[in-house]
Fold this sequence. Notes:
Elements: E1 2-5, E2 15-19, E3 23-27, H1 72-85, E4 91-100, H2 105-113, H3 115-120, H4 140-160, E5 167-170, H5 174-184, E6 199-200, H6 219-225, E7 246-247, H7 250-262, E8 276-281, H8 283-292, E9 305-314, E10 321-325, E11 327-328, E12 356-359
Parallel strand pairs: 4-8, 5-6, 5-8
Antiparallel strand pairs: 1-12, 2-10, 3-9, 4-9, 7-11
Helix pairs in contact: 4-5, 7-8
Amino acid sequence: MRFLATFGPALVGLAASAHAASINYTTVKEYFLQDESSTDASTFDYTAVNFGLINRTYPADKDINSPQTKTQWERFYHQVLTLNKDSSQDVEYKVLFLGRHGEGWHNAAEDYYGTPAWNCYWAELDGNCTATWFDAALTTAGMGQALVAHNFWQKEINEQHIHTPDSYYVSPLKRTLQTANYTFTGLKLPHGSTPFVPLIKELFREGISIHTCDHRHSRSYIHELFPSWPIERGFTEKDELWNGVTAETSAAQDARSRKALESVFFSSTDPKQNTFVSVTSHSGEIASILRVLGHRAFSLNTGAVIPVLVRAEKLAATPTSSSLSWTVSPHCTAPPVTSVSACVCPSSAAPVTIPLVWNL
Length: 360
């Protein structure tokens, strides 16, 4: 095999717009275990703790006849509706179910090669002789993780009478599309529930790096995979955000996440009834969303789901724009000298900042 250096797509999307907050987001605490500093994210199992919903009473319980006959999720849903009913028109409460995709081939490859070697060389290729991780698909294990989520949702529907999402959003990357499909397709939803027809949304994608797993397929390819799923207006045929040269900074990604959330909040004809929202996304993007929401850092395992109760308030300030720079990421042109703590390129393969093309 040989390695060639080439420039990728046109250098577009190299800066993200930063808008002064027209909506202020805060996480409403004391409802979920994942909000508490004592909860260890590395051992958290959402299926063992009712999505993390804390067993407690609510102020709105007084309005329910025989609240002791209602499940925790039924009473929580009533509490959220009450919060919305009692708030001003500029305040809205929503519960975001943030789901990370199941294991993808890029996750398996990173485990195989080790993170330093993955980041500085292998991740810049489309794959190796046995697997492809460009816009990575789910592994068999990843499919299983999504089915765990499916079965748990059904259990919560049957036993907890949970209110299922009023709207669904999904990242356009293949692993998230597959995860959402395995998770929600075929659920026996309660009568009157919103059917599972997710909106494919560009800005809920993973943090954009030079890794090829962050490079999405074309709009035509995505539509062919799931032809009945709507794709948001303005979604481009080719991926104009990924170029294999520059990567988002955390600040640029947070600006993107904020813009994505702006289209979720205060967006429907009856927003205060559209209270439960599913977002199937990625570890890095969920981390960014949590930062925007003022939530503590909480890393999700592949396939995991956490709900977050969010208070959003419209502000009177007029949005302004500024430019947020992206960053260049040097990488090796041949497999690196392996290291447990850092990547070391061979002396004959100096780091470059242009895409690599892998050829058999």
